[in-house]
Design goal:
This protein is an alpha/beta fold. It is built from 35 helices and 10 strands. A 4-stranded parallel sheet has the order 1-6-2-5, with helices on both faces. A hairpin with a 4-residue loop joins strand 3 and strand 4. Helix 13 crosses helix 14, helix 22 packs parallel to helix 24 and helix 28 packs parallel to helix 32. The longest helix has 20 residues.
């Protein structure tokens, strides 16, 4: 007898019942299941007494690629039922799909992603024919609420239509060729007894064809996807296809982890299978009609528990609408969408800003109606899987448990911790907790502590949070390494990889500090350096520079002051920033992150010259060129002018700020305001007369000259020009703290020979812009009255 192929939909109760019934009737010699073949030696582990759902978590990492994936199983997964029922029937049970690390899965994080979703043209036609909104509603209509009689034939017809003439992608073709090899080997070894093959329905037609032909079907798929055909795997001495091994030097493995209904639910982002796992668990255990009745009750109970008024009349209306929709749609039993549509019709009286979420697939949108959220939460269920105590765990799980015990951090789910970071033991505790944090392991969150290395805070507070998912998160973190420091380093390294945002390096740098740089890998440090060298946004790079510079100069908590890592980061960031700033172009306005980056360069050159490969003279020359470049943004020109004055104020031919202000005023008050903002961001002591940076620079200009020229320019401006430029000018002077603004106001009063309070001058009764506009409006009205001879005379 040859193979019997059952094409199924992942996580379908109807398909699970069919598999169970077929195994019982067929009593096959072999049951072959779509799943990771590398787990075949560990099926006893998989079939321990776990509380489902659980998942096979697989990971892969080499020098070029890192990948993780899950193969989840719940009570009503056809694959799980095939394993369990096949083993109970005495069959030899095997997984027959490629390992998760294989390039065939390069674009997938979920092995059981529905192929009929990827090849959706046929399902769209069927949805139109049966007048349903989504493939999930179509599936319910065709299979879940229909009687089980004839379901195998209906599934065959459905999947043949879905597959149709669609050409599978390279990954699917490689998988199908490999699975077909297992089928041929099982048929040869079965001695005439039947072989049951349970796979995703999309693969079923191809497997039948490949098995019947005894070859590679269309000859278009192989292990590397080059279309050369032929077998690309070895056959073992036992006659079974070998399991491909990862490339040399790669790290790959698989572990069982707990899973949850929330992770299985399409409405929280799951890629495949049935949505609403809690509802379909009820369908599996009690049947569609009992599940529908239970869903009505569950939704009403959830809404009432959250103080949402739901009357008995509302419940009666929802039940009546549900029953009417079931009849109207021709369903022999109530479907999930019948219940949800009936509840929506009875309970939602206000307008919705979009279609109901069960008409499609994917996560809920922000702003979804609260009643809809509760409906889907009731459908989703709250079950969390649990592994059997004898289940092997990755080495990291045991290493973390040992560290937490050694450091007295295993005080239970309600224990909080206050750590003194000046104490070596507490500092080690902090590093362990931060390593768990960057690995995404729940249980404790930091509620207080230093925000950066120069923050004068020497204590940390960690408070307990829900540990749900901790066991799975620890197992998944094992993909990053066998010990905690190595795993944290690998996780941080991955954060700096391709596709990371421009704001990542500064956060990774400080996380590396919190985790303990000494325990992190050289690869992380080199990745961080290369990532910094590739940044194109001065603002992000300036944040990295200021963070590392502060740690290099002042760190007392983490012991990194004058450290070689930070020295390399500072040097690379300064070089890159000077290059980026000299080529910067852009629209008018003030770019505050860019100005902060220039300030970071200033501080590095003035206060950390030791690690720099750029001399002070070189930095001053670059700043001078930027300040004179008419194509550069005005705010950057002002900042570069200030930087040049600070670094080389006595250079021959260097004009003073008063002369530069006169030159910039010719470009308009907006450009002048932007230029002044840049200058004040870098060297506000040029106006205030403070001695900090000027003393570091050796000597500086007289601030009185700059105040005088600014005062003269402002007074000479026509009212309309002054009003137009006032916002930019106000933004520029916002760089001064109140005390310095008061000092400048006092000098302006002295220039006019006025004796009074400069503080009072700064305190207006309304927004100065509003006052200026009101004054301009009054002047305009006066001019109009005078123009038409309507002006009054002074009394």
């Amino acid at each position: 007898m040859s193979a019997v192929f059952l094409g199924v939909r992942h996580h379908s109760p109807a398909c699970a019942r069919l598999v169970e019934r077929t195994v019982e009737e067929l009593r096959p010699a072999h049951v072959l299941v779509e799943g990771p073949a590398e787990m075949n030696g560990r099926l006893d582990e998989l079939l321990l007494g776990h509380t489902l759902p659980v998942a096979v978590f697989s990971h892969y990492r080499d020098g070029q690629r890192a990948a993780t994936s899950w193969a989840p199983l719940c009570d009503y997964s056809p694959e799980w039922v095939a394993l369990r029922a096949g083993r109970a029937a005495g069959a030899e049970v095997r997984f027959i799909d490629l390992p998760a690390w294989h390039p065939a899965f390069a674009e997938r994080t979920n092995r059981y992603a529905d192929a009929e979703v990827r090849y959706a043209e046929a399902t769209e036609r069927l949805c139109g024919h049966f007048a349903v909104d989504s493939p999930d509603a179509l599936w319910d209509r065709l299979f879940e609420v229909e009687p089980d009689d004839g379901i195998a034939e209906r599934l065959d017809a459905y999947f043949a239509l879905v597959r149709g003439e669609a050409r599978a992608d390279t990954g699917d073709r490689a998988r199908e060729e490999y699975m077909a090899a297992w089928v041929r080997a099982a048929v040869g070894a079965a001695g005439g007894r039947p072989v049951l093959v349970v796979t995703g329905g999309f693969h079923q037609p191809a497997l039948r064809s490949l098995t019947a032909s005894g070859g590679s079907g269309d000859g278009s798929g192989d292990g590397s996807g080059d279309g050369s055909g032929g077998e690309w795997w070895d056959v073992g001495a036992d006659g079974w296809p070998s399991v491909p091994s990862p490339p040399a030097g790669a790290d790959a493995g698989s572990f069982l982890v707990p899973y949850s209904f929330r992770q299985l639910d399409a409405f929280t982002g799951y890629q495949s299978g049935m949505p609403s796992p809690g509802y379909y668990q009820e369908v599996w255990e009690k049947g569609p009609q009992a599940a529908a009745d239970g869903l009505l009750r569950a939704v009403v109970e959830r809404l009432r528990a959250r103080k949402v008024p739901v009357s008995t009349a509302d419940l009666i209306a929802a039940r009546s609408l549900t029953e009417g929709l079931t009849v109207l749609r021709g369903h022999p039993r109530t479907a999930r969408t019948d219940v949800l549509d009936g509840l929506a019709g009875a309970l939602i009286t206000d307008d919705l800003d979009g279609p109901l979420p069960w008409t499609d697939r994917g996560p809920l949108r922000a702003g979804t109606h609260p009643a809809v959220v509760e409906m889907l939460a009731a459908c989703g269920g709250e079950r969390i899987g649990r592994l059997h105590p004898a289940t092997p765990a990755p080495p990291l799980v045991h290493e973390v448990a040992a560290q937490l015990s050694r450091l007295a951090l295993d005080g239970g789910p309600d224990r909080s911790y206050r750590l003194d970071l000046t104490d070596p033991v507490d500092l080690e505790r902090s590093r362990v907790l931060h390593r768990l944090r960057v690995l995404g392991v729940p249980g404790l969150v930091r509620t207080a502590g230093p925000g950066h290395g120069v923050d004068p805070v020497f204590t940390e507070c960690w408070e307990p949070r829900s540990p749900a998912g901790r066991e799975a998160a620890l197992a998944e973190a094992g993909a990053f390494g066998a010990n905690l420091a190595e795993a944290a380093a690998a996780a941080l390294t991955e954060r700096t990889g391709a596709g990371a945002g421009a704001d990542v390096p500064a956060g990774v740098l400080f996380d590396a500090v919190l985790c303990g740089v000494g325990g992190l890998s050289e690869r992380l440090l080199s990745e961080l350096s290369s990532r910094i060298g590739g940044l194109t946004a001065p603002g992000a790079l300036g944040e990295v520079l200021s963070t590392s510079l502060g740690l290099w100069r002042h760190d007392r908590v983490y012991g990194l002051a004058r450290g070689p890592l930070l020295a390399a980061v500072i040097d690379g960031a300064v070089r890159r920033l000077l290059w980026l700033l000299e080529g910067a172009r852009g629209p008018a306005g003030v770019d505050l992150p860019r100005l902060r980056a220039v300030a970071a360069v200033r501080d590095a050159v003035l206060y950390a010259p030791e690690p720099l490969g750029v001399t002070r003279e070189t930095a001053a020359a670059i700043a001078d060129r930027i300040s004179r470049d008419p194509a550069a943004p005005s705010d950057l020109r002002g900042a570069a002018f200030g930087l040049h004055r600070l670094l080389e104020s006595s250079s021959p031919g260097a004009g003073g700020p008063a002369e530069a202000v006169r030159e910039m005023s010719a470009a308009g008050t907006d450009a002048l305001g932007d230029w002044l903002a840049g200058l004040f961001a870098l060297a506000r002591d040029e106006v205030s007369g403070d001695s900090g940076h000027r003393a570091a620079a050796g000597s500086g200009p007289d601030p009185e000259a700059l105040i005088a020229v600014l005062d003269d320019l402002m007074c000479a401006l026509p009212d309309d020009a002054f009003l137009a430029g006032l916002p930019a000018l106000r933004q520029a002077f916002a760089f001064f703290p109140p005390r310095e603004r008061e000092r400048i106001a006092g000098r302006l009063l002295e220039r006019r020979g006025v004796h009074g309070s400069s503080r009072a001058l700064l305190r207006t009764t309304a927004d100065p812009l509003l006052i200026a506009r009101a004054g301009a409006l009054e002047q305009h009205v006066t001019d109009l009255l005078n123009h038409y001879g309507l002006g009054g005379t002074a009394a």
